[in-house]
Design a protein that fits this description.
This protein is an alpha+beta fold. 15% of the residues lie in helices and 30% in strands. The strands form 5 sheets. A 5-stranded mixed barrel has the order 11-12-13-15-14. The chain has a 5-stranded mixed barrel with strand order 16-17-18-20-19. Strand 17 (338-344) and strand 18 form a beta hairpin. Helix 2 (71-84) packs across helix 3. The longest helix is centred in the N-terminal third of the chain and has 14 residues, at 71-84. 21% of the residues are buried.
Length: 409
């Protein structure tokens, strides 16, 4: 099965026993020893109902009005290979299954044709390329939903993957798209509106009749993937919190149909400020506004962030304050190496153990307690690591410095 509600298929034994797997949860069993099949399903804890005919019976197959992959079609394929010096042949034996064949000579066309699956849909695309950098750039742009097709140096193919923007990065230790001698890659569009192959057809049956291998209407999985393909990282979306995982995050319905539970909002992405319970920020049933920060096509998950649409209090603080400046704060936590002080909502810094007093202390609790209101000086702000180093001693007036006082007449 492909994705959550993937392709349907038919399995048939020599003695007539068959199994048909549908788009939804139903499995149709018939022919042969049906009573034994029914008993087996009950042992497995499944429910059975007798029906007149399987909706996936071959007798119900529709006649396909697509172009037939006949001799005329293969003659055109040979002409494309001869003119271009090579081409990529996509074989789809069923809706979401793909096999790939690289055609580099006219003679290879006939050999590949003989190996194709009955009723498969062959499509001819431009040849793979060794220009890996151009492919990486196209993947990073993420302008459309595409499959990344890669060929080994020995001629074999990697398993095709949905090309996600992060896969195009080359500045990481193990890039997902690599180059090398005889390593070739290609991007093949997935959505029907984007698919414009050089040639396309369907293999007819032995009697020459062109029949659809699968239903021509979109399956639920195709519609859901099309919905995923319409979304973009960085886009702001509205959804309704559907369910929650207490220590991880919440699932979000992005619409009432295809987008059910498609979004996922992790706790760290809910708010810049601290909160005691998820129910205070994203309770079940609440409509929320969030930014898409990642789309995982394999897991059919859209990662969301509410705080991406909120001003970052840490950066705002760093923009409006400077080193040496004195600010007020509240001690929030004592640790062995110092104390954490909140200087603004959502912004905290560390007072190191060497800073709480003018004399040596063994533990900050000797001079501080959680909840204390203090004046601290900013020693350093590290924007990249989002860390602020504070000092209590440097916020106090220097010894000998003038201290303002009342002058009474």
């Amino acid at each position: 099965m492909v994705l959550r509600e993937g392709v349907w298929c038919r399995l048939r034994a020599d003695h007539g026993f068959f199994v048909h797997v549908g788009h939804r949860d139903d499995i149709y069993v018939g022919g042969g020893d049906q009573e034994n099949a029914v008993s087996r399903t009950r042992v497995l804890g499944l429910f059975t109902d007798r029906v007149a005919i399987s909706p996936y019976d071959p007798a119900l197959d529709e006649v396909d009005d697509s172009r037939a992959a006949n001799e005329e079609f293969w003659s055109e394929v040979r002409a494309v290979v001869a003119a271009r010096g090579g081409a990529l042949l996509e074989e789809r034996p069923t809706g979401h299954a793909y096999r790939w064949h690289r055609l580099t000579t006219v003679g290879e066309v006939d050999a590949v044709c003989e190996r194709l699956t009955p009723r498969a849909r062959p499509a001819v695309w431009p040849d793979l390329t060794d220009e890996v950098e151009a492919i990486r750039a196209a993947v990073v742009r993420g302008e459309r939903l595409q499959l990344l097709v890669e060929q080994f140096a020995d001629g074999g193919f990697f398993r095709a993957r949905v090309a996600e923007p992060g896969m195009g990065r080359a500045d990481i230790p193990n890039p997902q798209i690599t180059g090398g001698p005889d390593h070739r890659v290609a991007l093949v569009p997935l959505e029907r509106a984007d698919r414009r192959p050089l040639l396309a057809a369907v293999l007819p049956d032995e009697d020459g009749v062109l029949r659809a291998r699968w239903r021509t209407n979109r399956s639920r999985a195709e519609e859901r993937r099309a919905f995923l393909g319409s979304l973009r990282v960085g886009e702001a979306v509205t959804g309704v919190v559907a369910s929650g995982l207490d220590d991880v995050g919440v699932h979000v319905d992005l619409d009432d149909d295809l987008g059910r539970s498609l979004g996922f909002l992790r706790i760290p992405e809910m708010s810049w400020t601290r909160f005691d319970s998820v129910n205070h920020v994203a309770p079940i049933g609440r409509e929320i506004r969030a930014e898409i920060i990642d789309i995982d096509f394999a897991r059919e998950r859209v990662s969301l962030s509410m705080k991406a649409l909120q001003p970052d209090p840490w950066q705002q603080f760093a923009d409006t304050h400077k080193k040496g400046e004195t600010v007020s704060g509240t001690v929030t936590k004592l640790v062995a190496f110092g104390a954490f002080v909140q200087v603004e909502e959502g912004v905290g810094g560390l007072v190191h153990l060497s800073e709480p007093a003018d004399h040596d202390v063994q533990h900050p609790q000797e001079v501080l307690a959680a909840g204390d209101q203090v004046r601290v000086a900013i020693l350093d702000m590290d924007r990249r690591r989002r860390r602020i180093l504070l000092s209590l001693t440097r916020a106090r007036p220097r010894q000998g410095a003038a201290v303002p006082h009342d002058v009474r007449g």
